[in-house]
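Entry:
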Amino acid sequence: MPAILDKISQALNPKKKEKKETKEESAQPSATAVKVADPTETKLHETKPAAEIHPDEAHPDTQEAAKDVPESPVFDNNKVTVIFVLGGPGAGKGTQCAKLVDEFGFCHLSAGDLLRAEQNREGSEFGQLIKDCIKEGTIVPMEVTVKLLQNAMSDALKESREGEGWQDGKGRFLIDGFPRKMDQALKFDESVCECACVLFFDTTEEVMLERLLERGKTSGREDDNAESIKKRFKTYHETTMPVIDHYKAMGKVAIVDSGVAVDEVYKGAADVARKVFTGGFKPNTTA
């Protein structure tokens, strides 16, 4: 009897061992199993510097827009004159642009207006992307803004406008509130048209704050309040001032004191425009 029991035990033990091994093997991950990514794990060689990361860089519409942005300038800066108009919130850019258009026949383009119009245009390829960015509080991808400006310039040149500066494929543009960031500045100069100069309306934050608060009484804009205005000033100093410094280094900035009366401001702005067209513009002038 003991011999029979030993044989039965020997026969059963290998199976138990085999089951144990099988159980242990099944607990180990397969060599070909898919590893679930840890969202907190980032490889050092895959990490981009903060300045290069864009919240919407993976959006399919952004990638499509990037394909459409050419690698070399679309417009010849010997024929097409582009003046960027920059200044802090409340510096008076819009008021002065309207006056410059009347005297010099500029086509006035506002990046903000173009984005708002594109957002609501039926059949827009970028409309949903712009809406998503506004909803999520992120910046509209640089490629989209540059492409909209390029399209607007092309449309204006096709209109066969009358007046000085619009014959034989020539054109003159005031681009208001752009570029606000360095990537916008570099991409526009590289792929659309090199700017002739930057008209920089400069004044103190006290003056701009007073103007914006006064405007807020009738504008209905949610951001025309003291708290929002201070945040806008901070953003302006952090993102737009480096653009001004970039163009200063290139000798392309004309500074106009916009803290004085509107007509006095315009005298300085008009003098800069006149010199750009006559070849008398001197680098980094103060009007």
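The first strand starts at residue 80 and ends at 87.
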